[in-house]
Amino acid sequence: MYALKLELKLNNREVSLWRKLAGFKRLVYNFGLYMLQACWEFDGIKASDSRGIDAIKKVFTMVVMKAPENPWMKQYPSTVYQSAFIDLKEAFSRWRQGLAELTKKKSKKKGDSFTVYKTSGVYREKGKPALPLTNRVVIKPGKRIVLPGLKEFRLKERIDFTCSSQTFTVSRTADKWFVSFPLDVEKIPTLIHPIATVGVDLGVKTLFSCSDGTRYDMPAATRWAKTKRRSLQWRNRNKVLGSKRLKVKASGNARKFYTRVAILHARIANIRRDTTQKMTTDLSRKAKRIRLEDLNVAGMLANHKLAGAISDNCFYEIRRQLTYKQSHYGTRVELVDRWYPSSKTCSKCHYVQPMKLSDRLFRCPDCGHVQCRDENAAINLERAPKDKVRLAESELNACGQEGADSLG
Fold first, then answer.
1. Which residues pair with residue 181 across a beta bridge?
2. Phi and psi (nearest 5°) for 315?
3. What's the predicted TM-score (pTM) here?
4. HSE of 73 in the Cβ direction (CA atoms, 13 Å)?
């Protein structure tokens, strides 16, 4: 399954509407979370999270929305608050399965988002029998899109083909608004790969090195953007940014500062996402079998000297993308045991020696072989024995869902 994520071209009135819809969903989500956690304090209530959320949804629909002080809730599509309860169910399901932490209250600082979807219904015309309506929205080629329950909106990027979808999610990143929706399309996997097996070593200096000699680096634009962000934060270190606890409102310049910092954060994230997507796609098209080291990324981030470099190089994100792209490109991603000494073993004579992280060249005292440390490790990962290798599985597939990729 694929998904399209396109930027919207909105005026001030439309942006105001988007913020109200996002605030409505945030209110409903926090209401359901508070009510469900309050039910846990009573020993007499024994029900699953799903049943509890369904009961809370009925209370919200029959009591809260009909209260005389809440007539404004009926101005928005009903799918906005219904999707909030659906997201709450999914959050608790992932928490029960150990895939995520317990969900917290939604905050305006974490961004705005809401979901609308098309529901099936009946079309009635006078003098004619009722006809069932499809539960999908047809999107025609062009720069316009109609969202269920809302009007038509403009896009900054053109859609070149006719498609259809049921669920639409609107989100804000910094000062830009995006709409994303899934497409029921299938990709024909690549049948021919130039390389049978390739070992990939993730590094701090280099993004990752392959056993065939290919190397990928993170663009220098990431460092420039981070330097610009640090400089902006340093210049505004004494600015009164507002505090809800102290009841101090943020000034106009403070709000401008928040917007500029958010834009720089979004730029850094976009550079990383674009780089990792292109590199993993290139590697998936090239190699049939890809072998990675099963790194303990959470443990590595505990080292404050390497945490920044590891976060910049997106170790876990590269593994996640390669894993879900297996079905797209017909590849097989395998994980080598993390205790396998790939960096300490000579790729020529298999002599194992201790090495420091500062040693960037591998010099074998037994056969005299000299090679880049990362390339030597990549070759050893490619030749790892079968008892040290296992198949990589996606967390989303473990939950019965499919990975989604972006077109374009």
1. 4
2. -60, -50
3. 0.78
4. 21
